[in-house]
Design goal:
The structure holds 2 protein chains of 2 kinds. Chain A contains 12 helices and 43 strands. By secondary structure, chain A is of the alpha+beta class. In chain A, the strands form 10 sheets. In chain A, strands 8, 9, 12, 13, 16 and 17 form a 6-stranded antiparallel β-sheet that branches. Chain A has a 6-stranded mixed β-sheet with strand order 18-21-28-27-23-25, with no helix packed on it. The radius of gyration of chain A is 31 Å and the shape is globular. Chain B is α/β, with parallel strands linked by helices. Chain B is about 15% helix and about 30% strand. Chain B starts with a strand and ends with a strand. The chains are: A alpha+beta, B alpha/beta. At the A-B interface, β6, α4, α7, α9 and α10 of A face α3, α5, β15 and β22 of B.
Chain lengths: ~725, ~375
């Protein structure tokens, strides 16, 4: 026999150990054997001499393929590669096909609180004192508690603006809770995801294979768990319960006995649910009824699947015994929890005041009772903050800048503001390396404005150079800013003057920023040089079809002759746009003439607007640089067409949905003006948002019954056109 | 009920029950809208009857299963409409009201119960809701303000009840949303109609997967005036992409069909469609239940791309089988390379005559279900 040593790379600790199912195939693609390979680990497979194709398939369907030839008594190592993901913290999600993380931890802040409820033997819930330690990372906060005795617990999470929710906790000695900005149900969870972290990757992968219909792969993972060959197979109550539910799904309840769930985890409702189903399928209705009622009295099961099975079991029993008051009471209590449950979560999650008071209208704010705030000022280590003050003071060249906001163009809201309104570079030696200063253009008009261009004009324009421009050609949303950096290198002695001219689409005259400096001969005033910052590209636009995340590079170059110090952040932090913290750290100091690249991550989520600024604070200029990052709006897919059967009298409806990665406000027009809009609900559409357009048709005397609704979405890819056809009158 | 045909045979047969409910008389836009349903956010649909017809058409015209030939077809459509059979008969199909659903289900159940070798297939397309149960809404949903769910099917309990049916091979397709109600109906107990009486006892061991068009608390989609995304994917699966080699021939099997349909729907989410995530449920050991015999190997759609994407503009791509067979090639183009190939083991390669990037060659297996875009990393 020969030996195939199969290996799959892992880029992250979170996904490490997760079992990936690999098939060893003959050259004719007939299956020889199927095994699991742990991510980041190796699996040995004995095979006869010959040539093989090895193919590992993730729950998503992504496959890693290699070929290998094995001789007798030979060993061949097969490197299958790694699971593709845009960033390492997405790896496990990329494997499972459920990418939901987005944004950074900044918004989680001090407003978030936690508390743990424990189910007592007398059937009541009490708040358990728990000491949390928190670790802040750029994109999430990890809260840990340890030293706990096994028990049934739920975690309650809330915040200043975060609806209170309860999560069933896998019981163990320790609890780890991951909080992050995420996709989900924004109207219920305010875009904050709370998930309980365990070493349960086998259970998660088993669930992932099952959910995506890969039942054979699920069976291989499950069998290995049942045989105890996976380290987290049966020890973890979470994975053991998932395995139990798998056996029920396969109709193999008799194998549940081998898991000994109620003996090992008597505090776990899921154990009693599974034991109840085993008894009922085995014909012992009385024991099954008792076990299910016991589970119902213990609070929410750990898994949503358990909630469904408990409900189904109780209802089946109730159908057979409609007069059974205990069953009726249990199903009604469970129904109330079910109504407040987020069924999209694999672990039971519901909204409520406390474990016994589920509600669809959960409160927000800070509770009166015991709770633990997890802000960075309460025991955690905050993420690195920009060292802004030190850089300003440490700047070698400090221009005399008149700070103020003097230019306003009123346009509905506050207006457009330029800050500062002029730049004075003071005295600079002739031909000395350029001193740089920035102006920030801010839009507070209440609407988006288009910045056409920015140029330097005036008698000494050649002495001034626009080194960075994140404004030109940019549609600047309300509330956002962009930056213009101008350097000054006098070519002659004496006063030098020019102006920065910024043209705005639809505005009358341009904005003018006076630029002044003085060239002097002789030695430079400063012994030290000065850094000059240049960013490329000036703006970043992600395409409309980003679903599981995308990465864009932002290059920062130091064109000066002193070290450039840089820190960067994203504002606002809850739009699914984030910076790779490692790349930001790598750019902290840039030597003269060098460049550095930061990675901008984008994971758009439903309900967000898909636009933010990367704010680059630095010691070259006094104001931070603003680099706009945004997605691409896209309308659709509305009905591909409104045919003759879609009309209700003279009216038909079109649903407009934002399927892009940036918010937009649709505008409408018609080909054939007999069609018109009777009413619509379309304002700004956030990502995933939708609105309805009610179209009417003036049929009187009409001969041309065909037209089209033209929807402008501002994507730059042309409008979306929905063909319309009014039915031919039958009379 | 509308039985399109029933061969009344005793041997193993495939019995199909398809429902496509697009009109809801008491919801917004219906003929008789009711006040107590205002605010539930549900209206009229154009796709379900088209989807149900398309599925029925395929089974009647194309299905070839020597293990269990088509034995009967039960169909309900809202709005009610005529269905033309291949023999020239035109049948007026009844609407999908709850009363018609009950009668049609009973007839279908009885036929499925004739033989343990039967394959029972139930497919519903229309509005769906979920909480602790999945409710499928009939045309007259909400007819009673006191019992709003009376005219809907408690699919969860019905599925349990089907465990008492003798047909050992069952397949369910729920082509509907599974959003959780957070509207005015949220606090109501879901007393939907169970079409079969459930039992914990398992007189017959069954393989009974359920393909849900949507994830929990999520939606399913369609283009107005077309079959749903799930139906379009299901039909592609039935026509070959849900097949595997069984006994030396290519056969569409239940497990590969559901896997392929789910993958195809997810794949079609890109680039500009709302995200739809099908899910598998039910009771299944993942058996390869034969549904349809193919005349030959299916063509497998594959997509090859270079990473980074700019490399596509100068890449010469090739797909060469390891065993003798057709080879494929393509010159530089900014678009990803999408083609259909014979199932097999290939070498996928990108070459750059200008030397812009290093050559990249990787093994690639093309077999159903269609693989996701295959990246050649050259940068």
């Amino acid at each position: 026999m020969g030996l195939l040593r199969l290996r799959v790379d892992s880029r992250s600790d979170i996904a490490s150990g997760a079992p990936l199912v690999a098939s060893v195939l003959t050259e004719d693609l007939e299956t020889v054997t199927e095994v699991t390979v742990p991510l980041g680990g190796m699996r040995d497979v004995q095979v006869g001499p010959g040539s093989y194709v090895i193919r590992a398939v993730a729950p998503t369907g992504s496959a890693l393929t290699q070929r290998a030839s094995v001789g007798p008594e030979a060993s061949v190592e097969v490197e299958l590669g790694h699971v593709a993901s845009p960033h390492e913290w997405l790896e496990l999600h990329a494997l499972l096909g459920e990418v939901s993380a987005s944004g950074t931890s900044d918004e989680l802040g001090s407003g978030v609180w936690l508390r743990v409820w424990r189910w007592e033997a007398d059937g009541t819930w009490t708040i358990e004192p728990v000491t949390w330690t928190t670790t802040w990372e750029s994109e999430h906060v990890l809260a840990r508690a340890a030293g706990l005795q096994p028990a049934q617990r739920v975690l309650q999470v809330g915040g200043e603006s975060i609806p209170w929710r309860l999560l069933a906790l896998p019981s163990g000695e320790r609890i780890e809770v991951l909080l992050r900005r995420a996709d989900g149900t924004p109207e219920l969870d305010a875009g904050v995801e709370a998930s309980v972290v365990t070493d349960r990757t086998s259970g998660e992968v088993l669930h992932g294979y099952l959910a995506r219909g890969r039942t054979e792969a699920a069976g291989i993972v499950a069998e290995e768990m049942l045989q105890g060959s996976r380290p987290d197979g049966l020890e973890s109550p979470t994975s053991a319960a998932v395995l139990g539910y798998y056996l029920v799904r396969r109709g193999q309840e008799e194998r549940l006995a081998g898991l000994a769930l109620v003996e090992r985890f008597p505090w776990l409702p899921d154990a009693w649910i599974l034991e109840g189903w085993r008894a009922l399928r085995g014909g012992d209705e009385q024991a099954g009824r008792a076990h299910l009622l016991r589970a119902a009295s213990m609070g929410a099961p750990l898994h949503s699947e358990g909630m469904r099975l408990l409900s189904t079991g109780l209802r089946l029993l109730e159908a057979a015994s409609p007069a059974d008051a205990d069953l009726r009471s249990a199903t009604e209590s469970l129904s109330a929890v079910a109504a407040a449950t987020n069924w999209g979560e694999p672990l039971t999650t519901y909204y409520g005041l406390d474990p016994t008071t589920p509600t669809l209208a959960p409160p927000t704010g800070i509770p009166d009772g015991p709770h633990t705030r997890i802000g960075p000022d309460r025991g955690g280590t905050p993420p690195p903050r920009p060292r802004w003050g030190r850089w300003v003071l440490g700047s070698a060249v400090v221009a005399a800048v008149i700070v103020g906001v003097v230019w306003w163009a009123t346009r509905g809201g506050g207006g457009l503001a330029i800050d500062p309104s002029s730049l004075d570079y003071g005295e600079r030696p002739i031909e000395a390396a350029g001193a740089s200063e920035a102006v920030t253009l801010s839009n507070d008009t209440g609407a988006e404005v288009l910045v056409r261009n920015a140029k330097i004009r005036g008698p000494d324009a050649d002495d001034f150079d626009l080194t960075t421009d994140t404004c030109s050609g940019v549609a600047l949303p309300d509330g956002r800013s962009c930056s213009l950096v101008v350097s000054f290198t006098p070519t002659e002695e004496g006063a030098r003057e020019a102006r920065l001219v910024i043209r705005i689409e639809g505005e009358g005259g341009p904005i003018r920023v006076p630029l002044d400096g003085t060239g002097v001969s002789g030695e430079p005033e400063e012994e030290e040089g000065s850094p000059v910052i240049v960013v490329d590209p000036p703006t970043i636009t992600f395409p409309a079809d980003v679903r599981e995340g995308a990465v864009h590079e932002l290059t920062i170059t130091n064109d000066g002759d002193a070290v450039l110090e840089v820190a960067a952040s994203v504002d606002p932090a809850d739009e699914g746009i984030a910076l790779d913290p490692d790349s930001v750290s790598a750019c902290a100091e840039i030597q003269p003439g060098d460049s550095c690249t930061m990675s901008v991550l984008f994971v758009p989520f439903r309900g967000s607007r898909g636009e933010a600024n990367v704010v680059i604070e630095n010691n070259a200029i006094e104001q931070p640089l603003q680099v706009r990052v945004s997605g691409t709006p896209r309308a659709g897919p509305t009905p591909a067409e409104v045919g003759t059967t879609d009309w209700d009298g003279s009216q038909a409806n079109v649903l407009v949905r934002n399927t892009g990665t940036r918010a937009f406000t649709p505008a409408f027009d018609f080909e054939n003006q007999r069609f018109s809009i009777a009413s619509h609900t379309c304002g700004e559409l956030v990502i995933g948002g939708e609105c309805a357009v009610n179209i009417s048709f003036d049929a009187e005397g009409a001969e041309d019954l065909v037209g089209a609704l033209v929807i402008e979405d501002g994507s730059g890819e042309g409008p979306v056109v929905v063909p319309l056809e009014y039915p031919t009158p039958v009379d | 009920m509308t039985t399109l045909f029933d061969d009344e045979a005793d041997g193993p047969r495939t019995h199909l029950f398809t429902m496509g409910v697009g009109t809801y008389r008491h919801l917004a836009g219906g003929d008789e809208p009711l006040d107590h349903l205002r605010g539930v956010g549900l209206g009229q649909l154009s796709s379900p009857p088209l989807s149900a017809r398309a599925v029925t058409d395929w089974f009647i015209a194309e299905m070839d299963n020597p293990d269990a030939p088509l034995g009967s077809v039960e169909l309900l459509l809202s709005p009610s409409q005529a269905y033309d059979l291949p023999d020239g008969r035109s049948v007026e199909v009844e609407a999908g009201t709850i009363d018609n659903l009950r009668r049609a289900f009973d007839a279908w159940f009885a036929r499925c119960d004739r033989h343990e070798g039967n394959v029972a297939i139930l497919s519903f397309c229309g509005h769906g809701l979920m909480r602790e149960v999945v409710a499928l809404l009939a045309e007259d949903f909400g007819r009673s303000a006191q019992r709003p769910f009376e005219a809907s099917v408690d699919f969860t309990m019905t599925f349990e009840g089907m465990a008492t049916c003798r047909a050992r091979r069952q397949l369910y397709v729920v082509d509907a949303c599974r959003q959780v109600m957070r509207s005015t109906l949220a606090l109501q107990r879901i007393d939907a109609t169970a079409l079969a009486i459930g039992s914990f006892q398992r007189e017959y061991e069954r393989d009974a997967p359920i393909l849900y068009a949507s994830a929990e608390d999520d939606r399913a989609y369609a283009r107005a005036g077309h079959p749903t995304r799930l139906t379009e994917a299901l039909l592609r699966g039935l026509r070959g992409l849900g097949s595997e080699i069984v006994g030396g021939g290519w056969v569409v099997t239940s497990r590969r069909l559901l896997e392929a349909t789910s993958d195809l729907v997810v794949r079609e989410n890109l680039p500009d469609a709302p995200m739809q995530r099908p899910r598998l449920g039910g009771e299944s050991a993942g058996l390869a239940v034969p549904l349809h015999r193919l005349p030959g190997p299916p063509k497998v759609p594959v997509t090859i791309e270079c990473l980074p994407g700019e490399a596509m503009e100068v890449a010469e791509l090739s797909l060469v089988p390891v065993r003798p067979g057709p080879s494929y090639g393509r010159g530089p183009s900014p678009e990803r390379w999408t083609l259909e190939v014979e199932p097999g083991d290939y070498d996928a390669a990108a070459r750059f005559s200008g030397g812009d990037y290093p050559e990249c060659r990787k093994p690639f297996v093309a077999m159903p279900p269609p693989p996701p875009p295959f990246p050649l990393e050259v940068g």
